[in-house]
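User: I need a structural model of DNA-binding transcriptional LysR family regulator from Paenibacillus tundrae for a docking pre-check later this week. Nothing fancy, just the predicted C-alpha cells so I can convert them on my end. Input:
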Amino acid sequence: MNLHGLRLFHAIVRYGGVTRAAEELNISQPAVSSQVKKFERELNIQLFVSEGRRLVLTDAGTQLISYAERLFMLEQEVEHFVEDFRAGKKGMIRITATYLPANFLLPAWIARFKQMHEEVEVVVNTTNTRIAFDQLLRYEAEIAVYGGSGITHDGVHWDELFEDEMWFVVHPEHPYAGRKVELKDMMAEPFIMREEGSVTRDRLVSLCTTNNLPAPRIALQFNGLNETISAVKAGYGANFISSLVVKEDVREGRLARVFVQHMQLKNTLAVCTRAGEVLSPAARKLVDLMKQEASNMESN
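Assistant: Understood. Predicted C-alpha cells for DNA-binding transcriptional LysR family regulator:
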C-alpha cells in the first residue's frame, strides 16, 4: 500500500478538491493529480469520477475513505501518545519493592505522583530483596525500591534516599523491654522474622556470625512484614526491624525497644535502576518525587 498516495487521496476528500489539497500540503496541483492517478493505477481501482469540474467519489472510493480516516486518526493518536510519553504524561511504570518501602513509603508517594500524573499507570509488586533484584535485572520492573543494609548488586545503579536505624523490639512486658543488654543475651531470644531471602533476616544472621555467636533461633516465620510485628505485639518473641516500621508502636507503648550494647545499625532506603540505562520520562519524574519526599522526611 502506497501510504503517500493514500494520504493525498484522503486530503483531496478532506479539503474538497485537488486545488485546496495542494495548498494545504504545499504541493503543486499537477503533482497531486498525477500522484493520485498513479495511486489508482497501483490499486487498479477508480476512486474518483469527474462531474464537470468536480471530483466525485466512486463506491470504492467511499469505502476506502472510511478506512483512510480511521488510519490517519489512529496516526494522530499515536503522535499524541508519543508526545505525552516524552513529556512523562503517559506510560506504565513497573515497580518491584521490598516489604519496608512497599508498606510504609510507596503508598503515599505514589498517591502524590498519581495526583499529578493521572494517566500514567503504576504497578507495584512486593517481594523480598533477592527476588526484587532478579525482577529488575530480568526487565520485569523498571524500578526497584529497596530497604535494607545497602548491599551492592552487579548491574544495578543505586540512588540512596535516606538511612534509618535498625531496632530490636519486644512486647512492653518482656523482661528486656527498655533495657540495655548484651548481644549474646538478645540472640538467645526466639525471633519472629520474614522468609529466607529477606535482607533483614540475612543481616541478623550475619550479625551473629561476625560476633561469633550461634545463629538466631527463628521461632516463627511469616512472608509479610506486618505479620511479624503483630506476633511480637501479641506477646511472643523479638524482632529485628527498621525503626521506620515500629517507631509509632514504640512511642505509643505497643512495642518496646531493647538497647543492645555497642550496636548502632543503620538501614538504607534506596531506589535502584539498571546501570547505564535511561529511565522512561514518567519513571524519571517518579524517582525525582521519591527523592524529594525522602529529603522532606529527613529534614523533618
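Before docking, keep this in mind: The longest helix spans residues 59-86.
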